[in-house]
Amino acid sequence: MKKFLKWTGWVLGSLVVVLLIAYIIIYFMSENRLNKTYPLAVKPVKVPSGPEAVAAGERVAKMRDCTGCHNEHFEGKVFIEDPALGRVIAPNLTGGQGSPTANYNDQDWVRAIRHGLNKEGKPLKIMPSEVFYAISNQDLGNMIAYLKALPKVNSNLPESNLKPLARTLLTFNVIPLLPYERIDHQAPIQEVVLPSVSAEYGKYLTTTCSGCHGANFKGGEPHGEGAPRIANITPGGNLGKWSEEEFKKVLRTGVTPEGKRLETKFMPWNMTKDMTDDELKAIFLYLKSLPA
Fold first, then answer.
1. Could you tell me which residue ranges the Cytochrome c domain spans (predicted)?
2. Domain identity same for 153 and 256
3. Whole domain around residue 67: which residue ranges?
4. 250 and 140, same structural domain?
5. What is the 3-state secondary structure (H, E, C) of 140-156?
């Protein structure tokens, strides 16, 4: 019996040592990715000034659901607080106390929004730059004009802190924590995208939607505990049964033809409720054109 207990203790002790060594390796591998500096040459974007540009930028920011992460007044918030994964902060963008953008110039804004890098060239966590990358230079310039004009709000948010599970999942590329790594930073950018009632324009407007619904818009597993399964918004899902008017009603009221009420924390229809009829029709045409 003593020999068995001694052997068991040796095995368990060895296992603890192996796991400790494995985590030390994972920690330093993840830390290297989290703090790596990328010397990216950022292509300049013209940032206009004046009330018209600010108003246009506010509309772009709303249609791209920036407040869904950065809070109603862009003062930031704790975006993820999970006992297993840790904490991720969506920062204050107003330039007030506690805001990392207080000393941003126009190039820094482009680097952050389009490329997912902070002022020092280090990767931002979860910032969905992969869906913002293709925004036209005109829309991005107007959005930056709006963000620069925001009233300053002071905040005192805690630091982001990743726990061992999150670092392990990052190391093995299970979670898309660092969007910079998934972007083709040399892909061409359109200077201006002109509105039109077309599937092509609908595709441009739905780049943000792909962040949740996936590149093929067929949805998938929930993004968190308590969240519903992400809907298939191709003709293979319920959208295939909806008329154009029913589709518009869903994106303006959050109620589906089946009578289901969509919660804004899972389906942010508040970002689409003020879209024009032409914009919603363009989105409808594009989604209807997708493979089921």
1. 52-151, 197-291
2. no
3. 51-182
4. no
5. HHHHHHHHHCCCCCCCC
The predicted structure's pLDDT at residue 14: 65
- DSSP symbols for 15-52: HHHHHHHHHHHHHHHHHHHHT------PPP-----SHH
Same domain, 241 and 125: no
- List Cβ neighbours of 53 (8 Å cut-off, separation of 6 or more): 141, 142, 145, 146
Residue for token pair 């989290």 = 34
Q: Describe the strand order of the beta sheet including 77-82 as a list of residue ranges.
A: 77-82, 86-90, 161-162
Question: CB under 8 Å to 79, separation ≥6 — which residues?
Answer: 69, 88, 89, 90, 126
pLDDT averaged per 10 residues, the chain (length 292):
61 69 89 95 95 96 92 94 93 96 96 97 94 95 98 95 94 91 95 96 92 88 79 91 94 92 87 92 95 90
User: What's the structural domain count of the chain?
Assistant: 2
Residues 69 and 143 grouped into a single domain: yes
Beta pairing partners, 82: 86
